[in-house]
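Following the same procedure, backbone shapes were mapped to integers, as reproduced here:
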Amino acid sequence: MIDADLVVAGIGELATSEGRTPRLGRDLDRLRVVQDAAVACRDGHIVFAGSRQEFQARVRPLPGATTVDAEGGTVLPGFVDAHTHLPFAGWREREFDQRLRGDTYQAIAARGGGILSTVAATRVASEDTLAALVRARLDAMLARGTTTVEAKSGYGLTLEAELRQLRALRRGAAGHPVEVVPTFLGAHTVPPEHRQDRAAWVRLLVEEALPAVAAEGLAEYADAFVDAHAFTPEEARAVLEAAGRAGLGVRLHADQLADDGGAALAASLRAASADHLEHVSPEGIDALARAGTTAVLLPAAGFFLRSAQRPPARRLIEAGVPVALATDFNPGTCPTESMPLILVFGCLWAGLTVDEAITAATLNAAHALGRADRTGSLEEGKRADLVVHGVPGRHHLVYRFGDSRVRTVIAGGKVVYEAPRTAAPAY
């Protein structure tokens, strides 16, 4: 018999990808789906996930075991949000209104808005303030079913302010149920002080910032934004190659607003991910496929910016590129913490099926963060990160769009969030 200290019973539908490597091509659309299911956990890990009948024959709840009644709901793995910008101060709702009135993102940035307006607010925020903001945002993500999240700096753009962001991220995440994967994004844009000497900022990142980040263990990855208003491929390469020498993994903002060669650069660096990719070329897609670099698509960002160019999800999938989904949570171009909403945009904006979107938001996203061996699917031996959604089947998560249906979140084998309930579920 299998002993369990936490049991989720009464599951109407259990849906999960399987494996410890990303799903590619047609396999992205293949989930293991079990009706009338149960999940059992022990010491923070899954020890059983299958049918109720098999559960009753094989699993023995220990005395005092926690039991969660899914009441006919749907259980998925915890969401893995593979691209966010958590530690910042200040919102940009006025810029949002300006865009609604016809202004462009590029025009706003040229006037000192955009990223630089958030930089100004973040630079004057204390580490205590930033840490509190991080924790509040992690709470919001947890309530929407996210159990693992990547989070970038990039709104300090001085050595001291970038380190403060990353320290605040570490403090805000300490002891929180959501696992945080920190990324250094000093190459987000060129700060105002270095606009006349871009090379000096690149040298500072390479010679001072990256060694300091590595020495304090403040990040697992480094990222760079390749764009006409940010960094050239050559500048980004210099930063990211230095990151590799410092022991950090590599990610890249690539081909979001134009084909700037970001995907090809990411592939040449064997980056863990190339993110955005709305304008990626066929050659860039082929390079990503050969390198095995994950394409992290951010469909809500393009929708929020009212972009005419949609993520090339189908082309990437057909080419054999691993595809993941993420929020891109940030104050300027995608202020949402909701991965359930990203499933909707992944399907209705990027053209994924529901099952593809689920895999992209769980197992493939975990792979993009180097964690597919321990989370992202409901399988024996993996960390017990799972979510009970108050719907009778997974398709309802997109079909009935507009509200989060999260009822219970379990992270590391513990119930860490339960939604307020006023009535029995109405399926």
